Automatic annotation (TrEMBL):
It holds the Pfam family PGK. It catalyses: (2R)-3-phosphoglycerate + ATP = (2R)-3-phospho-glyceroyl phosphate + ADP. It comes from the Eukaryota. Its EC number is 2.7.2.3. It comes from Strombidinopsis acuminata. Belongs to the phosphoglycerate kinase family. It is an enzyme of class 2 (transferase). Pathway: Carbohydrate degradation; glycolysis; pyruvate from D-glyceraldehyde 3-phosphate: step 2/5. InterPro entries: Phosphoglycerate_kinase, Phosphoglycerate_kinase_CS, Phosphoglycerate_kinase_N, Phosphoglycerate_kinase_sf. GO terms for molecular function: ADP binding; ATP binding; phosphoglycerate kinase activity. This is Phosphoglycerate kinase.
Length: 290
């Protein structure tokens, strides 16, 4: 099934069929979506991984659209340059396949309001429904695919699943800074099948900022690290211990550190198997004067 979030019901002129994918070549040196011009993008199907994991209330209404707004510059650029844009994201933490409360339907409606074009949403992220949607797309159009985490192979970075995600696209844009550190099928696996694979404007901006902040920081240099899990931040914290003067931890992961310090955490989220690691990280910080 497909949903259509439109600004207008007036149809546009159909465009000619696209050239065979084998004819599509772009210099490997291109690292950012801004390096791709109209000649590279027009008529091409672009698979864009965004971070549209927005909070929803009990009525499945978006309560904060910041992440959707952050994705707009990249999507607008692709639309303006005549690409056919396949947008994908995760939403929440579904455990056993599709759940209505984690569907991206509210996101599709908001995207259509913010973009200069209408957005079509399909009820899957792989398979014939995506194939049919791509066939129906015109240059400068956007299709939102369903939550990639409805498939367990997304977080396992399953090769077959990554291939299915990529099979209807010509190139890949990663604009999901919040999930870029995870080796998932939609963030890492698809790059094996799509070339070029480049950063979106949001991801590039964050990487440029981090590079400048970490490579040549003003002192004292303080880093704030948040998140729900210590396990996904180990590398970040260890790297920052070598570069910062202070580290402030926030988010759900602090309860693992609190428990490591012997503090009461009640029923808060704790990674019990990471308590020893939390102790090690704090010991390293103390030894380095951080």
């Amino acid at each position: 099934a497909r949903a259509f979030f439109g600004k207008s019901t007036v149809s546009k002129k159909r465009v000619s069929a696209k050239a065979p994918r084998a004819a599509f070549k772009v210099e490997a040196a291109k690292k950012s979506v801004g390096d791709l011009k109209k000649a590279d993008l027009e008529g091409k199907t672009v698979f864009v991984r965004c971070d549209l994991n927005v909070p929803l209330n009990a009525d499945l209404e978006i309560t904060d659209d910041t992440r959707i707004r952050a994705a707009i510059p990249t999507l607008e650029y692709l639309v303006e340059n005549g690409a056919k844009v396949l947008v994908t994201s995760h939403l929440g933490r579904p455990k056993d396949g599709p759940e209505d409360k984690f569907r991206l339907t509210p996101v599709g409606a908001r995207l259509s309001e913010l973009l200069s074009c209408s957005v079509t949403k399909v009820d899957d992220c792989v398979g014939d429904v995506v194939k049919d949607a791509v066939k129906a797309m015109e240059n400068g159009s956007v299709c939102l695919l369903e939550n990639v985490r409805f498939y367990k192979d997304e977080e396992k970075n399953g090769k077959d699943f990554a291939k299915q995600l990529a099979e209807h696209a010509d190139l890949y844009v990663n604009d999901a800074f919040g999930t870029a550190h995870r080796a998932h099928a939609s963030t890492a696996g698809v790059t094996e099948f799509l070339s070029p694979s480049v950063a979106g404007f949001l991801l590039q901006k964050e990487l440029d900022y981090l590079d400048g902040a970490v490579s040549n920081p003003e002192r004292p240099f303080c880093a704030i690290v948040g998140g729900s899990k210590v396990s996904s931040k180990i590398g970040v914290i260890e790297t920052l211990l070598e570069k910062t003067d202070k580290i402030i931890l926030g988010g759900g992961m602090i309860f693992t550190f609190y428990k490591a310090l012997g503090k009461s955490v009640g029923s808060s989220l704790v990674e019990d198997d990471k308590i020893d690691l939390a102790k090690e990280l704090m010991a390293k910080a103390e030894a380095k004067g951080v």
